Amino acid sequence: xxxxxxxxxxxxxxxxxxxxxxxxxxxxxxxxxxxxxxxxxxxxxxxxxxxxxxxxxxxxxxxxxxxxxxxxxxxxxxxxxxxxxxxxxxxxxxxxxxxxxxxxxxxxxxxxxxxxxxxxxxxxxxxxxxxxxxxxxxxxxxxxxxxxxxxxxxxxxxxxxxxxxxxxxxxxxxxxxxxxxxxxxxxxxxxxxxxxxxxxxxxxxxxxxxxxxxxxxxxxxxxxxxxxxxxxxxxxxxxxxxxxxxxxxxxxxxxxxxxxxxxxxxxxxxxxxxxxxxxxxxxxxxxxxxxxxxxxxxxxxxxxxxxxxxxxxxxxxxxxxxxxxxxxxxxxxxxxxxxxxxxxxxxxxxxxxxxxxxxxxxxxxxxxxxxxxxxxxxxxxxxxxxxxxxxxxxxxxxxxxxxxxxxxxxxxxxxxxxxxxxxxxxxxxxxxxxxxxxxxxxxxxxxxxxxxxxxxxxxxxxxxxxxxxxxxxxxxxxxxxxxxxxxxxxxxxxxxxxxxxxxxxxxxxxxxxxxxxxxxxxxxxxxxxxxxxxxxxxxxxxxxxxxxxxxxxxxxxxxxxxxxxxxxxxxxxxxxxxxxxxxxxxxxxxxxxxxxxxxxxxxxxxxxxxxxxxxxxxxxxxxxxxxxxxxxxxxxxxxxxxxxxxxxxxxxxxxxxxxxxxxxxxxxxxxxxxxxxxxxxxxxxxxxxxxxxxxxxxxxxxxxxxxxxxxxxxxxxxxxxxxxxxxxxxxxxxxxxxxxxxxxxxxxxxxxxxxxxxxxxxxxxxxxxxxxxxxxxxxxxxxxxxx
Length: 787
Fold this sequence. Notes:
CATH class of the largest domain: Alpha Beta
Strand content: 5-15%
Oligomer: single chain
Structural class: alpha/beta
Number of domains: 3
């Protein structure tokens, strides 16, 4: 390792006393912040909140990065995996003066120190218990553990001048997302992207158990990380300060050597061995050693609040007083509470401060994408439903050209499903990114690829949010059933986004777009496991106010939805579209008009006159479900022409109840709902997913007794495409039966024929079941249904 400047070691020790004191004081004090008076019970907060165990180690890591940046003037972003260590991050942001830049309440003096100590986890303060978007320099809260490493890698993609240092907790390292994220090094091109410096903080304990890494030997950890493809640097005591500074310097030199080699040659080197620092410190380092007979420092007892009830327990007060005074804080500050010069000697200044890194405010780096004209990809609809085409195939062509026009700030992410989802047109312009050796039979793989494919939805989501939050654009493509794997992770991202809305200095970023295909309605040979539309349900339930759910019924609607979402900001959008050829219904102009509200009456379906005063309203959302709805209308026209039907197509769910952030709220009043669904006529709604989605949207604005909802009923198997619709009761036969039953209530002519028609329709269903059991395929009369 590199030689160490002893002045830097002495600075580091003093600086850590300063930040450790502020970190510890945040947990306890509401006044008497420099202990210049006798510590009393009334000096303590009524509710003592926070986590101590990880704080001193995080301070140590942050300080070491400070020294590196001050020495080399490099641009560095800092990500904290254990977000419950927020007191450490806040202590350092206060010390370096970043907090004062964003919040005038925190100048670097006694007043500012007192405010940050008191405000930590105080009701309605900017700084709750974790590293939220209110914290300058943050792009990850770190509450739900496991996402730090992948987010760090996402932040440096296409950011060649950026180094992201990421503190990965050893408890966090037991999570699945961290385990897969270590393979991110195999996708990082040192020629065109920045670097990640992972520091694994091994303090040995979680809430009440030892960590796996804490029980592993240095040799075992070394073999593990060599196997991942890294060069591990182990740092542990004694003289840990000098060793850490030497390790960070060595890691920095290795990073620059890899980048120099890659950027000076035509071909990037394969398998670059990026450094990783494995740092062993004590849990609750330099805090209380023992209390009431049990170890605190170096044990799980220091994880949260190590000593409780100091405002009630004299022994606790005495112990905490001794602990806080051990930092000798008044030796480190002047009379006004400002840190002395020697404390700040190697703290970066200006925009080099970790908290001031411009990439942490991704909106400041945001650039609009160049989007090709949609007319280039639009299908010409001369006769409704006559032309067949795949929405995903045409989407692939659009993505191909977006990548061609935006080579440094747009990526596609997909868990090994891009070609299965019919987006292979993108490989006419780009490849899959990969930096490890390949076989001659491998296709579309290259170091500079714009497609990120790895069979880990968690790693992809981490890359994605790191990429978006630092100002870039992308689309996450997945099988519909397996986007649910990252439901909780997306929920955490949505929480971050929601909080960021309230922070005035956070600027808008590109929306997160999830393109769900390979839908459950055509899972074909994949079976029941591939039927799960619940990702949409979760998004609507949790964050409907800034989410958009698109169900484009055809290619032109898909193109319009993609353009609208790709150019939007600060939203979470989900597009659900099948990959198989389906009938085409709308011209591009009609699709653009419908997209203004996300809902439209298609007069050409039931006829203009029938639509004015219908007996029944039929609605649908979803391409396969729209096909069934329109076939049901055609069926009814043939067998019961007296039935007057209005057809409503819903291409965006937020437009009928949750779209107040997105649109004019066309269906967010009772009158708005009635405009499309009439005031009193029965409504049959054929919905792609769980009908609960529609219930939660509609019921605030209308009564449930006139709505008959059809949707996914959790029925499935490896069966025929039409049988999936039959067993879930969304087939054209089931819709026709429902329309006849409901329409008979308002049309006497229909009522007279009702029983006979229903018997015939039910016979069709029975015959279908018999046929597929005998022949293993849908009957011709079903496969050749046309509008």
